[in-house]
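Much of what follows relies on a compact textual record of a protein's fold. An example makes this concrete, so a full record is given next.
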Amino acid sequence: MYAIVDIETTGGHASANGITEVAICIHDGEKVVKRYQTLVNPGREIPIYISALTGITNEMVENAPYFKKVAHEIFELVHDKIFVAHNVNFDYSFLKHHLASAGYDLQCNKLCTVRLSRKIIPGLPSYSLGKVCMHLSIPNAARHRAAGDAEATSALFGILLQSDKEKHIALALKQKSKEQVLPANLPKSDIDRLPSTAGVYYFHDHKGKVIYVGKAVNIKKRVCSHFTGNNPGHQRQEFMRNIHRITHQECGNELMAFIHETIEIKRLWPAYNRSQKSLDFAFGLYTYEDQRGYIRIAVDKRRKYSAPVHTCGSMVEGRNLLLNLIEQFGLCPKLCFIQKNDEPCMGTNGLQCACEGHETADDYNNKVAAAIAELKQTLPTFAIRDAGRTDDEHSCILIEDGRFYGMGYVSHYFDADNIHQLKNTLTPYPGNDYIRNLVINYAERYPHKKVVFGAEAIAV
């Protein structure tokens, strides 16, 4: 038996909206054998644009029962049936959420008439309920009302049952089939094409635009995990409706996937990626020359087009680094903005300090240059050589002077010890502190994968 359901609501996601109308048609595989319909008081105002779409007004539901009053009847009708709807995850998420609030746990197999229509009646320009019904000459005198849409969906489902020569409905209901949890607009063939290897995957909307980028050790497993559960939140429901296509790019190993995901998020700026859209390291050490010709070092917030001599994760980290340079190279704490009062200089030179004019700008600037050179010497140059996409290649990632240079794939026989040949083989990418630290931390965990270049190899 099938419970063919349509609901009207106050908005697009269950966690913050109420149900205004429920209609259920019980179908035995040949015909509708029972019908149920009720208005529901959603316990909140119905937005004007919703009333304009459905025709359901606040006055119409004022004396209607609240959902908890009809929850038991609805649960008894649907809980032991196959739940069918046009874009089933929407209706199911609403009923499941509101039934749970009333103390009922809805667990049903689901069928989506959008997905089934795409398979059984291919080639239509649109698979909205109205357009499919128009194509099949299915009447609907009450469009956007639960009873009218449930009756139309029932008629459509009857046609699908009769036309299903390739047994798509039976396949969708198999226990191992994941199709019923997929977004309504996503072809299952996109899932079938995904590999079980490390890489990056892309969710596209109806125009082909990338709306989400993710990375995975196992692309197929990770993509399928997005579609499990019935989160009623607005973002998830909107996200699911907007997924029309999935593409992917294999990356050989997890680190390559991590880096490629970061690069693609910065390049594509997908709507549903929240992380990695801002600078990871918010502070840096900056130098500038003051009016007297002294080069000053300061810790400051990162700016979009600035070029710090060193980056750091916090003001405290930058201050501690600067204190070490002051002590090691005899720099002036006042000229480094560590000491900001009018008291005598607390530097090692005391009253003979540069801030008092007892050290020339040239002499002091030489010490600043030595301190910066020491910072740069601590920045590593190395490569990570790791598993590739196939058995006859390696992946390779290059860090040069503490900055991410690029990555790519090389043959097993390629001499990765020569940095100049390696740079000609790799693809340069824009880097950031997040990528740099990913690679450095990875090198610390897996030192046997690290390729260190000798001084003669990196000499210009």
